[in-house]
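SAMPLE LOG
Freezer: B-3
Tube label: C17
Construct: single chain, 70 aa
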Amino acid sequence: SALAVFGTQAREAIDQATKSLAVYLGPIAKVVAKKAAVQASSRRHFHLLLAEKLADPAERTRFLHEVGVE
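STRUCTURE (predicted):
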């Protein structure tokens, strides 16, 4: 589950990533983030799953930078 992957800051981490993703995807970002949180095996994996939803490589790079993934 997402809580197990993210530990005690699960909700905060998911919310922050959702807000960042919403800049690119709009309101659907919330649904995308919920699905990715269930599939992810780690916080990094979660962010990479979200980034895959962005078609533009520059947007993917910017998103990953915004959420702290190098």
